[in-house]
Design brief:
This protein is an alpha/beta fold and 244 residues long. It is built from eight helices and eight strands; from the N terminus they run αβαβαβαβαβαβαβαβ. The protein has a single domain, classed as Alanine racemase (TIM Barrel), CATH 3.20.20.10. An eight-stranded parallel β-sheet has the order 7-6-5-4-3-2-1-8. It binds pyridoxal-5'-phosphate.
Length: 244
């Protein structure tokens, strides 16, 4: 195994072990948690090494970068040819409406839906493809103006209108903890996302399920798992020790 492959395999094993330990501490099974490897910092060959190490969920924040890597590594493939690693692509950053068409055929989950206008465009384009697009709604849980996502109070009216976007499959919520304030602020923010899901779940429109809670990054994913995350998005921790 090359040094690169070995280092990535070691980092991945460590992150997985920490996820499993955090799940255990909160009485959950590690199987309930999907690790998305965020490959936005690295080139396609390093992303390929992540796939080869057995992590099939890859996340990118810029649509163009996702297209470029999907060109090299392959589009989303839940039933891959036997000689290829399966890939599930996640978009975790802002999606401009003029990039929806090119993104849809490649994607497993768009985690960063942040406006009604984007929901409307996704619905139109998914209808043309004859396939619903799975998404998460991104909430700004930290209240930090520099963070992305919709104000939490926006989500209830949006859910109430979900019937307007029948080709968009809303599967859950995504959020990011405040970058400042340390562990207690992160705990508060993750608690907010979880509470928001509970509130919205009391009154779900038909066809909508909020099973997924995507929260937690390299410096707070264990806390996120303890707070109920079903998806964690980890970048830098997977690439520690690499010259990137
Ligand atoms: C970059 C990014 C991550 C991963 O961040 P790390 O701290 O490197 O793990 C997770 N989520 C989003 C939305 C990101 O933009």
């Amino acid at each position: 195994m090359s040094d690169l492959a070995q280092r990535i395999a070691d980092n991945l094993a460590l992150v997985r072990a920490r996820i499993a330990a955090a799940a255990g501490r909160s009485g959950r099974s590690a199987n309930e948690i999907t690790l998305v490897a965020v490959t936005k910092y690295v080139a396609a060959d390093v992303a390929q090494a992540v796939l080869a190490a057995g992590c099939s969920d890859l996340g990118e924040s810029r649509p163009q970068e996702l297209w470029a890597k999907a060109d090299l590594l392959g589009p989303n493939s839940d039933t891959p040819a036997s000689d290829l690693s399966p890939i599930r692509w996640h978009l975790i950053g802002h999606l401009q409406r003029n990039k929806v068409r090119r993104t849809l055929p490649l994607i497993h989950l768009i985690q960063s839906v942040d406006s009604r206008r984007l929901l409307a465009t996704l619905n139109e384009e998914a209808a043309l493809r004859g396939q619903a697009v799975p998404v998460l709604l991104e909430a700004n849980i930290s209240g930090d103006a520099t963070k992305t996502g919709m104000p939490p109070a926006e989500l209830e009216p949006i859910m109430a209108e979900a019937a307007r976007w029948p080709h968009v499959a809303i599967r859950g919520l995504m959020g990011m903890a405040s970058g400042t304030g340390g562990e207690s602020a992160a705990k508060r923010d993750f608690g907010r996302l979880r509470t928001l899901r509970e509130q919205l779940s009391r009154n779900l429109p038909p066809g909508v399920a909020l099973n997924e809670l995507s929260m937690g990054m390299s410096n707070d994913y264990e806390l996120a798992v303890e707070s109920g995350a079903t998806i964690v998005r980890v970048g830098s921790a997977l690439f520690e020790g690499l010259p990137i």
